[in-house]
Amino acid sequence: MAQPALGIAATALVVAISLGYIALWDFNTFNGWVAFVALSFIPFEVVTGVIWGGNPRFAAGLRQPAKALVLLAVTLLVGAVVSQVVYRTLGASQGEPGPMLAFFSICVIVTTFFWTIGLGGWPFTATIANPVAAGLATWAGCYAVGFAIYWTFCDFTYLQGAPVYVPSADPQGLFPGWNVVVYYMSALTILFAWLCFDLWPLTGTPAVMKQPALGIVLVGVSLVAGYLLYWIGVYAIGVQNVEFLLRVPIAFIFGTILVLNMCQNSVFKAAQPAKGIMNVVTSAVIGSVLMVAYQQLQPALSGPLPPGPPEFQREMFQVWTANAMLSVTFPFLVFYAAYFNFWPMARPAPGPGVPAST
Length: 358
Fold this sequence. Notes:
mainly alpha
């Protein structure tokens, strides 16, 4: 099966599996431990897909599906260990994993995308000869930087009095936690939009297409333009933080995974920038349509919303949608594309599992 038909069929299969998996859990469990464990293994999954191209040395000699199963087992083991370490330290081992731990995980995940896709793992990939060691160093570095961002900028005092608030675990940073996460995700949206253009127009400047210059430009522009996107949506237009996060960054990033990753950037054959424009529009539309579809399926999958005032229920509903799309379906899609290499739908072919910039 050739692309883009392969990507469409594979996406349909993975989405169906994801919905079945989501349906195994009640609403609170899914929004709690299930989503948190998934957030804990995504950074390692991204490193495996981008830095190692889904083919690290410790599994390179295996054939499908044995290779994928080994990578899957290692990734899940890493996620299980990381989730417990984070829960017992930053979470102070109190209650269900709440928004504080989720926001820390998101800071790490976004940092991982910037460091792997934008910087290509530099400086570790440039200075460490062993690719596995370079990838692990990048992964550890992403946690260090993600923690620094979380601890410096995130404040959760607005949650005081809520059951999910753990005073001893609140970093009491410079800005409300939601502001930090929504802005950081907005910046990542710019990076993924740039990938839709195959990094045009930077490709016409060879000096910029080398690390670390490429990473500095990609990350720097994404952070600046991401703030502009965030300011327009949340402050100028007045969209509530969680609503903006769901309808813009999450929907768009989810759509780009389907267009660039599952269909391997094969939907449009035009030259840049026309191809990029079509990729961006298609990603936004597909992501938005699937977001609405997930929301419509929520009652059948996870049952009624938890009791509380309408504002609280609305936020929990939005968080559930975000988790269903990016905490479950996204990693499942990457598992199939990067680890299984679309087996058995297609013959194994080398290539990164998520969009790469280098």
